[in-house]
Design goal:
The chain is built from 15 helices and nine strands. By secondary structure, it is mainly α. Helix 8 packs across helix 9. This is valine--tRNA ligase.
C-alpha cells in the first residue's frame, strides 16, 4: 500500500503510444493523412491549402482527426494511426473490458472483483494503472486485495533466461514428480512477494508425500470390508473423540493460514499432520484397536468410520495445496459410496 501511495503522490506524465508492429492499435484516423494533421498542429493558423502549396501536392481530406475502430463514412482519404497503445494502457483496463465494458451484464455482476494476483515487479505497471482506470471509469476500485508473488529462480539463485539456458520446463517436472509435488514446493518455498530458487530435492520429497497420501488412503479402504461399507457410510462419528477434536483444530489452523495468505505455513502443517499424526500414530492405534474385532462389529464400524472421517477432512483441507491426488482419492471414495461429488466442492 505504501508503494502505491508513493506512486500516486509522485505521478509523472505517461506517453501511452508505442512504435511497435504488434499490439492494440490506437483507433485514430487522419483525414488527408497524418502528415497533414501534424503539420497543421505545428503551424497554427495555416490551412490545408497552405500545406498543398508548400509541399506542391494535392490533399484529399480536411486535416481533421477521427476516433473510432473504423474510418468515418465521409469524403476524402483517411489514414490510420500506426502507433500502438502502451501495453499497460490496454491491460490497465482489463478489470472491466473483459466484462463487456462498464455497461456489460457481466460487469454489473462481477465488478469489482476481490483479488488481483501477479508478480511484485509489475505492481506499478499493472495494479497501479488498473486502480487508476477503475476509479476513473467506474468510480470504484476494481479489487480490494493485491497478492504479490515472487519469481521462480534457477537452482543457483539466478534468474531463469533463454540466453543462459537455465530454465526448467514445467512439463518435465510434472512427468518426473507430478504436478502436485511442484505445486506444493511453490507453496512451501515461494513466500508471498519473495523469489525462490527451485529445489529438486524438495520436489522429490513432495512426491514421496503424495505417494504417502495415496498409499495411506488405499490402506484405510482395504481395511473396510465390502460388507461393512454401507454401515461405515451411515455410522455417526463421535465428535467428542480426541482424534476428531484434534483434526478439527488442525483444520482451523490451516484455514487461518490460508486466510492470511501464509501458504508456506499451511503447506508445512498439512504434511506434518497427515504423515506424522494420522499415518504414524492414529492409523497404527486404530489397527490395534480393531485387531481382534469381528468383521461388522459395532466397535470396528465405529473406529473405521472415525478413521474415514479423519481421512476425508484431511483430503478437503489439503485440496487447495495438492488438488490432483486429493481429488483422485476422493473419487475412489465416491465409487464406494463413502463420499459424494467433488472434493473441491466440499466446505472446509
Amino acid at each position: 500500500q505504501r508503494a502505491l501511495e508513493f506512486f500516486y503522490e509522485n505521478i509523472q506524465p505517461w506517453c501511452i503510444s508505442r512504435q511497435l508492429w504488434w499490439g492494440q492499435r490506437i483507433p485514430v484516423w487522419y483525414s488527408g493523412g497524418k502528415k497533414v494533421y501534424d503539420w497543421l498542429n505545428e503551424n497554427e493558423g495555416k490551412t490545408v491549402k497552405d500545406f498543398e502549396t508548400e509541399f506542391n501536392t494535392k490533399v484529399t481530406g480536411s486535416g481533421d482527426i477521427y476516433v473510432g475502430e473504423n474510418p468515418p463514412k465521409k469524403e476524402g482519404e483517411w489514414e490510420a494511426e500506426t502507433d500502438m497503445f502502451d501495453t499497460w494502457f490496454s491491460s490497465g483496463q482489463w478489470p472491466y473490458t473483459t466484462l463487456g465494458g462498464v455497461n456489460g451484464e457481466d460487469f454489473k455482476k462481477y465488478y469489482p472483483t476481490q483479488m488481483m494476483i501477479h508478480a511484485r515487479d509489475i505492481l506499478f505497471w499493472w495494479s497501479a494503472r488498473m486502480l487508476m482506470f477503475g476509479i476513473y471509469r467506474t468510480g470504484k476500485v476494481p479489487f480490494n486485495t493485491v497478492f504479490l508473488t515472487g519469481m521462480i529462480l534457477a537452482s543457483d539463485g539466478s534468474k531463469m533466461s533463454k540466453s543462459k539456458g537455465n530454465g526448467i520446463e514445467p512439463q518435465e517436472v510434472f512427468d518426473k514428480y507430478g504436478a502436485d509435488a511442484l505445486r506444493l514446493w511453490y507453496y512451501s518455498d515461494a513466500l508471498p512477494g519473495s523469489n525462490a530458487p527451485i529445489r529438486e530435492e524438495k520436489i522429490k520429497g513432495n512426491r514421496n508425500f503424495v505417494n504417502k497420501i495415496w498409499n495411506a488412503s488405499r490402506f484405510i479402504l482395504m481395511n473396510i470390508e465390502d460388507s461393512e461399507i454401507a454401515k461405515v457410510s451411515k455410522q455417526s462419528v463421535n465428535m467428542s473423540s480426541e482424534r476428531i477434536k484434534r483434526t478439527e483444530e488442525h483444520i482451523k489452523i490451516v484455514s487461518k493460514y490460508i486466510s492470511k495468505y501464509q501458504f508456506n505455513l499451511g503447506a508445512e502443517v498439512i504434511r506434518e499432520f497427515f504423515w506424522h499424526q494420522l499415518c504414524d500414530i492414529w492409523i497404527e492405534e486404530i489397527k490395534g484397536e480393531i485387531k481382534d474385532e469381528e468383521i461388522g462389529s459395532e466397535r470396528r464400524i465405529e473406529k473405521l468410520s472415525e478413521l474415514l472421517y479423519i481421512l476425508k477432512r484431511n483430503l478437503i483441507v489439503m485440496h487447495p495445496f495438492i488438488p490432483f491426488i486429493t481429488e483422485s482419492v476422493w473419487q475412489e471414495l465416491v465409487k464406494l459410496k463413502l463420499a459424494e461429488g467433488l472434493v473441491m466442492s466440499q466446505q472446509i
